[in-house]
Amino acid sequence: MASSYNRKSASSGSRRASSPSRARGASRTPAPRSSSVRPASSSGYRVIPGGQLPKRRNAEYGRVQPRPQARPPLSSVRVGDLDRAERNARAQRTYRRHLVRLSIAGALLLALVAGGAALYASDVFSIESVQVSGVEHLTATEMTELAAVPADTTLLRVDTGAIRDRLLKDAWVECVEVRRVFPHTLELAVTERTVAAVVEVPTENAESTQDWAIASDGMWLMPIPDKDSEAGKSISPKVYEDAESVLRIAEVPYGTNPAVGAYCTDASVSNALSIVAGMTTDLAGQVRAVAATETESTTLTLESGVEIVFGSAENIRDKERVCLKIMEEHPDVVYINVRVVDSPTWRSPS
């Protein structure tokens, strides 16, 4: 009995003896918890409920360091979105450059307009001389007077169209170009009509004829006065040179009324001009005169004296070919009729 009591007392004493040690914080290994509890990290942090880490204290200064901020979550961007953004940025830069250029251009334009207006109103490019070129049948003085350039005008303000219209009123002027030659010269480049024939036009009393110069386009150029007359002395010598070298259209019907600067309306004269202008062979150079009494009886007189009844200005080349062939086969021929080109007739001295 004594032994049993001693054991109980001993065990009770041992339990009591162990109590103070627990109270003083004696270490005792706790029973392990479930596996859901995360172990302490190797860095010395202790896992606490809620998953938050405790604030670290600065060992040197004893201050609590702020917890590092978490990185923002990653987001994905498509390549097409990047290209579109780059294109938009590039377009904006291009637009801004265009705006700058347009602003500069507008400023320059305004400056030019203002300067041009001031220059237009000034007398900087006043016309001091008028030069005429291309005239033979007219004189430079006549063309200058006909141009009638205002005395107070300048090369910038001069009305070139009005000057051109005034010059074209002269029958000799076929076309003209008005040029500004800076700083003080106005140039008139004239192209004259040439004399195609001299027409012997019957006078009103039909007792004589008056020579008229006519151009190849049928415009009456001028009456040709006698060379030794007072009117003839004021005319360019070129007019008489042409009158002597071109063919003459004679036997014009009475009632033909030419006028300077007007086109010929007489059918027989127009037919004669068309024949001469349409000839392309050596026969053209041999024609000395044309009798234009009627269209169908229009007759050419060659330098050799041969008379050719040519008729209307149709099938001109075929008629020329027939005439040349007859003249080659019959050197003594004096008369040829080719009004009907398929049935020509001719006559030689008997």
UniProtKB/TrEMBL annotation:
Matching entries from InterPro entries are given as: Cell_div_FtsQ/DivIB_C, FtsQ_DivIB, POTRA, POTRA_FtsQ_type
Give a GO cellular-component term.
Answer: plasma membrane
All copies of domain POTRA, residue ranges? 125-193
Region (Disordered) residue ranges read 1-85
**Could you tell me where this protein is found in the cell?**
Membrane
Q: Which UniProt keywords apply?
A: Cell cycle, Cell division, Cell membrane, Membrane, Transmembrane, Transmembrane helix
Q: What is this protein called?
A: Cell division protein FtsQ
**UniProt source species:** Rubneribacter badeniensis
